[in-house]
Each structure stands twice: as C-alpha cells, then as structure tokens.
C-alpha cells in the first residue's frame, strides 16, 4: 500500500499518522466501529450543525453518556429492547475505535460481543483523539 485511501473519519488513525504505527488488519476494525456508531446514533459521527460543541463528535458525546450512566438520548430507541441493543452496539463500536490498535478486538471478538449479553461488556477506555474544531 503506497498511500492512504478511505473516507475521512472512518480510516484508522495510524493510516494517516505514522505516530500511531503501521497499517494492519485492525484498521478495518476501526472503520467498522465508526460505521456501527453512525448506524446506532442515526447521524454522522461528525456533526457541526449541533447546538453544543460537546455534541460535534458523536463517539465522545455518547461515551460521556455511558460513563455517567445517562440516557443515551437517541431518537431511534422505541422500547427497552432497542435500548439494550443500542447500548451493546455503542460499547462494541467504542472498543473498535480505540486509538491504540492493540486495544481493538479482532472481528471474531466483535461478532462474539454483538451476539453476547450487554451485561458481559465492559466500557472501553475513552478514545483519545480530540473532537474536530467547529468551523
């Protein structure tokens, strides 16, 4: 691979910044996690049209809600089953987008987490990439 290819926001940090290491199979896990969080959030991961700057980068915004054990505040949640599924998908997506590739699960583990109980999932460390600036 001579140069980075992909959609901004979905490519792993180490693809565009060599400080995070080289490209590996865990780069695809990162992309999957970003897509998963976008699906469950019902919005793009970066939304500059929100009222509060803390809501610009969805993974940080939703992580804070999980950390404080707050309601997820997602419009797609209609009942308790949806709430459980959304929580599981968010936790899995946050594991997938860990900045350090060694902290990301393999896709086999991702499938196991999605098929398993949400009660067995731990909240991962906060991904430490900073939110993009508000234009």
TrEMBL record:
It comes from the Eukaryota. GO terms for cellular component: membrane. It is found in: Membrane. Pfam families: Pkinase. Residues 1-129 form the Protein kinase domain. The keyword Transferase applies. One of its GO terms (molecular function) is ATP binding. Its EC number is 3.1.4.46. The keyword Heme does not apply. Keywords: Glycoprotein, Hydrolase, Kinase, Membrane, Serine/threonine-protein kinase, Signal, Transferase, Transmembrane, Transmembrane helix. This is Putative glycerophosphodiester phosphodiesterase, protein kinase RLK-Pelle-LRK10L-2 family.
């Amino acid at each position: 691979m001579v140069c980075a290819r992909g959609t901004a926001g979905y490519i792993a940090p180490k693809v565009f910044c060599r400080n995070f290491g080289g490209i590996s199979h865990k780069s695809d896990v990162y992309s999957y996690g970003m897509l998963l969080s976008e699906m469950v959030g019902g919005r793009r991961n970066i939304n500059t049209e929100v009222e509060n700057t803390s809501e610009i980068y969805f993974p940080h915004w939703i992580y804070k809600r999980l950390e404080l054990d707050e309601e997820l505040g997602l419009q797609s949640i209609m009942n308790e089953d949806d709430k459980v599924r959304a929580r599981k998908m968010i936790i899995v997506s946050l594991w997938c987008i860990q900045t350090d590739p060694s902290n990301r699960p393999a896709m086999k583990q991702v499938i196991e987490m999605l098929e398993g109980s949400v009660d067995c999932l731990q909240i991962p460390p906060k991904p430490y990439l900073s939110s993009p600036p508000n234009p």
